[in-house]
Amino acid sequence: MLWLFLLTLGVVIICIRHLLESWNFPPGPPRYPIIGSLLSIEKYGSHLILQATKLIPQFPKMVGFFAGQMRVVIINDFDLAKKMAFSDTFSGRLIGMYTETMRGYNRNIGVISTQEFGFGNKGMWSIIADEAGIIVTDLKTQWDGQDLMVNQTFNISVLNILFKIVSGKRYRPDDPEMKELMRVLALVFKSAYIEEVFPILQYTKFTRELYGHSQKQLLTQTFKSMFEQVIQEHEQKLHTKESPEDFIDVYLQAKEGNDLFTKEDLIGICMDFFEAGGETVGSTLSWVFLYMSLNPEVQEKCRKEILQSLGVREPTMDYRGSVPYTEATIMEIQRCSSVAPSGLEHKALEDTELDGYTIKKDTLLFYNINAFFMDRDYWGDPEEWLPVDTLLFYNINAFFMDRDYWGDPEEFRPERFLNDDGSKTLKIERFIPFGFGKRVCMGESLAKAELFIFTIMILQNLRIKISANHAKPDPGQYEAGITRSPLPFHVTLEAI
Ligand code: HEM
């Protein structure tokens, strides 16, 4: 009888705890004790953020989920997202088993203290152009007239840029060890958060493998020992150099006599850059191939503009402004592909409220970048399209006459990012592929330079066509975790 009493007591405690946790929590699909919203999430598909977009008609501002025991809020409303992203209270990140134990040194390591290290300077442009030149020449010589399967094709080149900036090293684009690292890195991105949502999975070998535990461990160990070795080499040579040659040199110099800088954090920062800056830019370049093959007239228009403005000269960011249509096309590719559909999690650092709802400490909040990019009301609303320096009476006419400005977020249309005469790109508040606020992407200027220089060099050298022998690339076929990348697809390349 005692066991029945204890069982009933346990169930009652769990139910009361659940009621207290749910009290005034943002509305969302039904949630139950222990399993949370999992039953209701399942019917909307596996990717929480992309699927939260489907719930917008029911929950236009924000959706509250219980992922197991973890409280997660996804913000669909742009102004509310802005309020959250710019607030100190919501500027935390999840510290869990992956970040602390596996990736860290029993403490969280990485980024933060390095804000002043500039990613956008001119030295970086030539590093990017060198790397783009190598892969484009490879594609041009080896794949002319052939069908290329685009599958993480640019990821190693993008990692090489980071290697060069951080440590001065580079790898061949076909290096098998790097390819394996990239594969596992993609897996980490696809299965992020699972072990934190279901901590119970950590207890047996079988369940650990459901979220790729040993592969993740291998990846983090490989990254750690790789950077440990590179840092050691840098330490040995540090005092023989006249000035710092790369990021590790800069950090090691700053570290001398300053306890705030540690070698473990340096390893963490290097890992941050590789985790955040490889897959994101690499996937965007795959989307460039996909959308260029599907939109040959856009591709030709970009190429014409590029050849008129810089011919076959090596691109630098100084050419920004002189190829507005190409810039607008890159922006449209970023909008349509939503490579980081939800950014990273923001953790509430204390009990607080948001839009009248109670947000308890440690709740995770995401903003739904994908929803902002696909918002029919926004992308069709002429009022919000006014370029800062355009006179209103001029535009009213243009807007009223231009049917294309109305309600077409699903369309691939670079013109939406251009002013009326196509001479410059527009700054559009809701276009935030790199997030915004207190935790905005640290690599934004590097990523922008990479996308600009790679895209121009690709178009200077290659024509990308739909393959006659394979299925047409389909933007609806993608894999999504932290990042969203197209499933492998084929295109035919033609050297120019
Ligand atoms: C197309 C490429 C990229 C996209 C779309 C992208 C997008 C994002 C987004 C949405 C966030 C989260 C913002 C937030 O939580 O509010 C983020 C964070 C971050 N990104 Fe990027 N990113 C890209 C490339 C890069 C590159 C090249 C690097 C560096 C090498 C980088 C480094 C970081 C870091 C370190 C953070 C975390 C910042 C923090 O926690 O304070 N990213 N990125």
Question: What does it look like?
Answer:
With 496 residues, the protein is an alpha+beta fold. The protein has three domains: 2-108 and 344-373, 2-Layer Sandwich (Uridine Diphospho-n-acetylenolpyruvylglucosamine Reductase, domain 2), CATH 3.30.43.20; 122-338 and 413-495, Cytochrome P450 (Cytochrome p450); 376-405, no CATH class. The chain has helices at 2-22, 38-42, 48-52, 78-85, 97-102, 122-143, 155-167, 176-190, 194-197, 205-210, 213-237, 247-255, 263-277, 279-294, 296-309, 324-337, 369-373, 376-379, 392-401, 444-461; strands at residues 62-67, 70-75, 147-150, 346-347, 352-354, 357-359, 364-367, 462-466, 478-480, 484-486, 489-495. The strands form four sheets. It has a four-stranded mixed sheet with strand order 1-2-7-4, with helices on one face. A three-stranded antiparallel sheet has the order 3-11-8. A two-stranded antiparallel sheet has the order 5-6. Strand 9 and strand 10 (484-486) form a beta hairpin. Helix 6 (122-143) packs antiparallel against helix 7 (155-167), helix 7 packs antiparallel against helix 14 and helix 8 (176-190) crosses helix 11 (213-237). The longest helix is centred in the middle third of the chain and has 25 residues, at 213-237. The protein is globular. It starts with a helix and ends with a strand. The relative contact order is 0.15. Protoporphyrin IX containing FE binds next to helix 13, helix 14 and helix 20.
